[in-house]
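hey so i finally got around to running the thing on that chain from the lab meeting. sorry it took forever, my laptop kept dying and i had to restart like 3 times. anyway pasting the input first so we r on the same page abt which one it is
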Amino acid sequence: MEITRGWPARRGRRVLTASVAGAVVLGGVLVLLPWGEGDAPPPAPGPAALARGAVTTGVPAALPDLAVLIGDRERHLRAQPLDGVSWAVLGTAYVEQGRRTADVANWPKAEKALRTSLQVGAERNPQALEGLAALAVARRDFPAAKKWGEDAVKAAPKRWTAHAVLIDAYTGLGDHEGVGRALEKVMKLRPGTPAVGARAAAVYRDRGWREDAAARISDAAAAAEAPAERAAYLEQAGRLAFERGEREEALRFFQEARRVDPDQRAAQAGQGRALAALGRTTDALSAYQAALAKRPSPEYALELGELYESLGLDQAARVQYDLLRARVREAGAAGADEELVLGRFEADHGDPEAAVRRLREEWGRQPGTAVADALGWALHRTGEDEEALEFATIATDGEQGGGVRSALYAFHRGVIERALGRYGPARRHLAEALTINPYFSPLGAPEAERALAELGEPSVEDPPG
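ok and heres what got predicted. didnt touch it at all, straight out
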């Protein structure tokens, strides 16, 4: 430990004395004595305390600990129903549990608890306001997340977690300047912590700063102490590796995340993604099925369905697509917005015109980069390629906010350009997709290879672009 120069010697002696409480010197020898009843070290925090510490400081919490915390706060509030702080803790714990399990039944319970916290506690209760913002993010209601997050910042300007939730809100709204401001504030208020490093990594990924993102999330995973937190950052590192086409490295990250926290189902789905890319399809199917059994996310159902379809197992694919529709309906009943994943599904496997209608509404409400890509692709699937290219450009042009290096987005743009006869740009974007990640989709990657082969070598007649 570095010692600051200029400390008085007696201060150092006081520190030493304090550090050897419970010891005596006998014959010049330091002897440690057993702790007395009044001097016992504090017990290790229990599951409820661990979960409470996590959910109130913006880090992932372990599912078993969350269950204990929820039961503890529910019992407490039956006896003390006017405890506004406990209502906020309970609501935030419901949000985290729902986020981890994809159980949308948590959303109405979380909203009720958080609104009760506002009613019985202080009117400008920053923890409840922040919890409502996090709930809105989980529901993919980014306008509401922005409102609640900005209210939380007004109530407690130096509360870094309120600024952190605004990063998600502004990302979903396509407000890239807002994202930058919120990240700058978070890094100023809470520099050097793993949670902030993970936030920075996500923003850098969206800006296309892949090396910076990888370095940030690697540091965050190494510095995180709680298993659930470390596993979450390892899963994020795995996603970044897979997006770079690094199948083996991605699989290692996902496996380590599962070893650290067996309830890390996002990492289990990631294993399915990486194993499929490695050609280990039986293992990939098992990983996806296990992840869906514990976290029935519409996104995972779409991925598994497309993997089945790529293997010619159309009936099995339809089962997953039916699950996707059912989960989207349940989410809607619980106040959540899954129009993006439903629009993506309909564009490729259902009704493209319905996809366009859904995604136009989504774009009008929350114009994020992912929505721009999905809407552009849906428009292409209905033959509206000129307009499709406008949205595909938004999703892939760094000057318009689409800085993320996504193989899927580049593939979509290349196919749209090919349909418009813009063969030079089409060739460039299809090649870019396969360079970024040759395994980005079990259906899309082979299609990109075929389209690029059919385009052949560049021609002097190709229009510039």
